[in-house]
Amino acid sequence: MDGVRFIPPSSRGDPWFEDGNIILLVEDDDRRVLKAFKVHRGVLARQSEVFETMFDIPQPTSSVDSVEQIDGSPVVRMYDLPNELSDLIKALYDGVWVVQPLPVWCHSD
């Protein structure tokens, strides 16, 4: 991932918001990008105490230890499976929907 400053469409996870301001990055053991999610830091922080706390951790200020950026957005490396992270992000944005079958008395025969 070193030196990469652009995420190709094939590596963009769902969701990917062009106006997002932070990139959550999932890599394999060889540091190859599996999926990247460009999202809104404020939305994640508002909906999740875990993200809020993670974003509150002070970042290095020296240029040597500067925060990695891709596509003009800071990068946060995640250690989740891409499909699970995608589901989590969607739930934080859209809420969780539980579908229950209709009661037997509601079915028409």
What is shown here, in short?
About 25% of the residues lie in helices and about 20% in strands.
Description:
The chain has 109 residues and is of the alpha+beta class. It has a single domain, classed as Potassium Channel Kv1.1, Chain A, CATH 3.30.710.10. Helices cover 26% and strands 19% of the residues. The protein contains three helices and four strands; from the N terminus they run E-E-H-H-E-E-H. A four-stranded mixed beta sheet has the order 2-1-4-3. Helix 1 (41-47) crosses helix 2 (49-56). The longest helix is centred in the C-terminal third of the chain and has 13 residues, at 82-94.
Task: Reconstruct the topology from this structure.
Blueprint: E1 22-27, E2 33-39, H1 41-47, H2 49-56, E3 69-70, E4 73-78, H3 82-94
Parallel strand pairs: 1-4
Antiparallel strand pairs: 1-2, 3-4
